[in-house]
Design goal:
alpha/beta; 204 residues
Length: 204
């Protein structure tokens, strides 16, 4: 790990970008259902929407990427771009870590949409990593919303904030409900790192 600067490992979907809002609109079209009929209280995989009989999540995801430009068109989570700019301006190194390349034959579109979207919203980052094992790339603090990712990161001893949504309410704190809370927690963790004190992630 590069200890010359404090590294913030940032997930994109459901944390910086409103993936759930975007995929809900696309799913309504794909399923030929009114968008209002698709609950916003979903679990990971969106089984509540009845997508299995239409080919399942992987097929919906491929459609969303290759036919509907989801990673290029989704809206950002409220305040996320501005606060990432503030954190970067404070010398915090933003490392984007996303597992978007999990489906074959859509990698080119996924990477292009991702980079264009980050540039379009002026979201700063030093590194961007497309990988499943997020703990392997190293960061001083992570943020993620996917339950499996949060659990795996914490098992590896990685300081991880869970960004709250309906898929992860059973996970333990520390968690953030909005980006103002993310900013406070990251700055607090950076100060603890600088001074060698404990606090945010100390459970003793």
């Amino acid at each position: 790990m590069d200890n010359s600067s404090f590294i913030f490992g940032v997930d994109l979907d459901g944390v910086v970008g409103d993936f759930y809002g975007a995929i809900r609109k696309i799913a309504a079209e794909w399923l030929n259902k009114p968008v209002e009929s698709l609950t916003t209280e979903v679990s990971y995989g969106f089984n509540e929407w009845g997508i299995d009989e239409f080919g399942g999540y992987d097929r919906l995801h491929r459609y969303a990427v290759t036919q509907r430009n989801i990673f290029g068109d989704m809206e950002p989570i409220l305040h996320a771009p501005a606060i990432l700019r503030k954190l970067s301006n404070q010398g915090i190194r933003i490392r984007i870590i996303t597992h978007r390349l999990f489906l074959k034959y859509s990698h080119s579109a996924t990477i292009k949409q991702t980079v264009d979207w980050l540039d379009n919203y002026d979201i700063p980052y030093w590194d961007i990593c497309f990988m499943k094992d997020k703990g392997a790339v190293g960061a001083h603090i992570y943020i993620d919303d996917t339950p499996e990712n949060v659990i795996n990161l914490r098992k590896q001893g990685c300081n991880t904030i869970v960004f709250t949504n309906s898929t992860n309410r059973s996970l333990e704190s520390p968690r953030a409900d909005n980006w103002e809370e993310v900013e406070r927690m990251v700055m607090e963790a950076r100060e603890e790192w600088r001074t060698g004190t404990v606090g945010l992630f100390d459970t003793k």
